[in-house]
Write a structure and sequence with these properties.
three-stranded antiparallel β-sheet, 7% strand
Length: 140
């Protein structure tokens, strides 16, 4: 079959040739980190500075809960039932939400809004407490 089933700018596979965003995979393997490749995949260009290292730091920081996070518990409980690995991992992913897994995005938005408004941190926290709402990212 000479036609390509999928067409994408992310990668190309030909006989004896694999390209990621136009770069030969063996060249990328020789000089790039995993973070660099993630950046390349999403942005379409190799990082010019420490972007790849920053991505790796984010991935490492996501292990901060060790075996105590709700998503890890869900994964382990489902796996203990003898189901396939992909079902166990899916259970962990399904457990992610606003308070676990998504809290940091809400926190980042809150921080950006706070900086642009110039509101002091005690006022921001106080407003959440007055509304009896959880402060996004608290504990992360």
């Amino acid at each position: 079959m000479s036609e390509t089933f999928w067409k994408t700018s992310l990668s190309a596979v030909e006989r004896n040739k694999i390209l990621i965003r136009g770069y030969r995979i063996q060249d990328l393997m020789a000089r790039c980190s995993v973070g660099d490749i993630i950046y390349l995949t999403f942005k379409g260009e190799l990082p010019s500075g420490n972007e790849g290292r920053m991505i790796e730091m984010i991935v490492v920081s996501s292990t901060d809960h060790s075996f105590l996070a709700p998503s890890i518990d869900a994964t382990r409980f489902v796996a203990s039932g003898g189901v396939p690995l992909q079902a166990s991992v899916a259970a962990g992913i399904i457990s992610l939400g606003d308070h676990h897994g998504g809290a940091i995005e809400q926190c980042a938005k809150l921080l950006q809004e706070s900086v642009s408004s110039g509101a002091p941190a005690p006022d921001i926290v106080g407003s959440f407490r007055a509304r009896k709402q959880r402060v996004p990212g608290f504990g992360h």
